[in-house]
Amino acid sequence: MADFVVGEEHFLLDGQPVRLLSGALHYFRVHEAQWGHRLRMLRAMGLNCVETYVPWNLHEPAPGAFRDVGALGRFLDAASEAGLLAIVRPGPYICAEWENGGLPHWVTGPLGSRVRTRDAEYTGHVDRWFRALMPQVVERQIDRGGPVIMVQVENEYGSYGSDQVYLRRLADLLVELGVSVPLFTSDGPEDHMLTGGSVPGVLATANFGSGAREGFEVLRRHQPKGPLMCMEFWCGWFSHWGDEAVVRDADSATAALREILECGASVNIYMAHGGTNFAGWAGANRGGQQHEGALEPDITSYDYDAPIDEYGRPTKKFWAFRELLAPYADGPLPEPPAQPAALAAPVVVRPAEWVPLGEVMDALGGAESEHPVPPSFEELGVDRGLVRYRVEVPGPRRAYPLTAAGLRDRAVVYVDEVRAGVLTEGDGTLAEPVAGPASVELWVESLGRVNYGPRVGEAKGVTGGVMHERQYLHGVRARALRLDAFDGAGAVEGLPFRSAVEGATGLYRGAFEVRGAGDAALELPGWTRGFVWVNGFNLGRYWSVGPQDSLFVPGPVLREGANEVWVLELEQGGEDVRLG
Q: What is the CB neighbour count within 10 angstroms for residue 459?
C-alpha cells in the first residue's frame, strides 16, 4: 500500500516529492496482446507513469448493455506489472479524436446540447455508467496496492462549457463511488478555459504543445499553490483524410519538453504511443476558428507522430526523449524490449468471392422502416456504418435538381438502380437533374462523429430531407447496416458469395496462407473507400484520398496457415490486397 497526495508544491508519494513523467497510451487503440510491449517501451523511454482515457461509447453500446468494462482493469494490471503508475481519465467526455468524443450516440441523439451539463437525464446516464466502470479503478488505487494515483473530472470542459454545478456533481459522484486518490481537471492555459473547467479544491492542470513558461504563468493565476503539471504535452498531432500527414520535428518537441521540465513541472506526453482507430472508431473535427466549418474526418492511424510509432517502434523522438528523461530516473533506464515479430514474407491476396452491397444489406442490415422524412443515424440506432435511404420521385414531372439537404457525411446515389453520383456535405446536389417518376437510393456513410467543439454530438445521415427542386420528398424508407454486424470470424458465413466482380461495390472475401505471422501493413491498391477485416478483426477504414495508404495489422490477428480477409468496398473495388 502507498499514499499519493497533492502537496503545497509537489506531488508526494509516501511523503516524498515525486515528479510524474507520464505517457498517454490508450488501451482501446492497442491490441491487448501488445499492451505489455508498449508499456515496457514507455518505461524504456524514461517514464514512470501511463495515462489512459476510457471511451464510454465503446463499453456501453446501448443503455445498460455493458461490453468488456473489465478491459480497463486488465490494462491497469498490465501497467502495474510493467512498473508504472497510472492516471485514469474516465470522461464521460474524452475528445481523444474518438467517435463522438466518447459519448454514446444514444445519449447525444436525444439530448443534443443538454449533454455535458447538469441536465437530469444526462447525469442519470453518467451515473449508471460510472457505477459500472469505477470499480475497475477504485480497487486498483495506489492506497489499495494498485497503480492508480489520479482520476480526472470530465475533460477539457473549459473548451466547451461553464456549468460548475455539473462539474461539482461529477467530482462528488467520483468520491461517492470510492475514488480516494486526488482528482484533477485539465484545460488549455487560457483564462476562460480555466475558469470554465476548474473545480474549487480540485487540482487544475494545463494542456499545451509549447510555451510552458507562459502556460504555467496563466495556470498560477488560477491556482497559486500545488504542483504544476502539463496533462497533455502535444509532442505530435493527428491527421485528417484528404490532408497532408501532420508531423512535428523531434528537436522542436524535445526543446518544448525540456522547457516543461525546467519549470519543475510534471508532464504527460500526449501521445507516447498513439496506436490505431480500429473498427471505424475514428472521430472528426470541424474546421474554422469556431469549429463550425467543414467536416475533417480523422484517419484510421493514430500514430500521432509519437515517440513510439503505430507499430511499437522507437523513433528519433523516442531516443531524444529518452536522453532528456534519463537524468530524472532513479537508476539506469531499462533497454527497450525486443520489437514484435514482423510478417516473415509478403502476401498478395486476390479476393475470389463477392456479394453485392445490396445483398449484404439484406442479410446483415436491420429491418427496413418507413418514415415521413429521413431518420438520422441516431434515430435508427447506428453508431458506425451505413444507412440506405429509398424515396420515390413522383411523376410525371420534368427534370429538377435532387438534393440531400443537411447531408452528413457522404452519399453514393442511385437513380433507377443506376449510379448517379456521390454527394457530400459541401455538395449535396446531383450534377444531373432527375425527372419523375424515379426511384432514388442514397447510401449514406458516417465518416466519424465530431469529437471536439460546439458540434459534438451532431446527428448523422440526411438531416434536412431529400428535395426535388424546392419540394420535400416524403415517405422515406430506411435500413441500417451497422459495422458491428460483421463482428467475429463467422459473421459472413451465411452470405450468398459468388465470383468476384472487379470494380463493384460490396463485400469481397479472400483466403491466404501465412508462414511466420507477425505485424504487417495491409495495402489496397486500386480500391476506393471502405473497411477491412482480417480473421474477423476490423482494421478500420481505408480511403484512397490519403494521406494514409496502408492499415496496421497487429501480429496477434494473423494465424500460421489459413487466414481470411474481407473488404467492404463502398464506391469502387480493386483487384488485390497486399500484406507486407
A: 19
Number of Cβ within 10 Å of residue 14's Cβ equals 11
Look at strands 434-445 and 461-468 and give their pairing.
unpaired
159, three cell numbers:
473548451
Segment 495-512, tens digit of pLDDT: 999 999 989 999 999 999
In this model, does residue 288 exceed pLDDT 90?
A: no
- Dihedral over alpha carbons 301, 302, 303, 306 (to 10 degrees): 170
Confidence label for 531 from pLDDT (cuts 50, 70 and 90): very high
Distance CA 196, CA 205 (A): 13
Cα separation, 24 vs 272, in Å, equals 5
Active-site annotation holds for 60? no
The active-site residue out of 51, 99, 156, 445 is 156
Q: Report residue 423: phi and psi, to 5°.
A: -105, 150
CA–CA dist 5, 14 (Å, integer): 8
Residue 228: HSE in the Cβ half-sphere, 13 Å Cα cutoff = 21
β-sheet with 11-13: strand ranges across: 4-6, 11-13, 16-18
In DSSP notation, 125-178 reads HHHHHHHHHTHHHHTTBGGGTSSEEEEESSSSGGGT---HHHHHHHHHHHHHTT
Average pLDDT over every residue of 334-341:
97
Tell me, yes or no, if 232 is annotated catalytic: yes
Does the structure show a pLDDT above 90 at 290?
Answer: no
**Cβ neighbours of residue 400 closer than 8 Å, sequence gap 6 or more:** 433, 434, 435, 468, 469
Residue among 60, 97, 154, 232 flagged as catalytic: 232
Mean pLDDT to the nearest integer, 243-257: 97
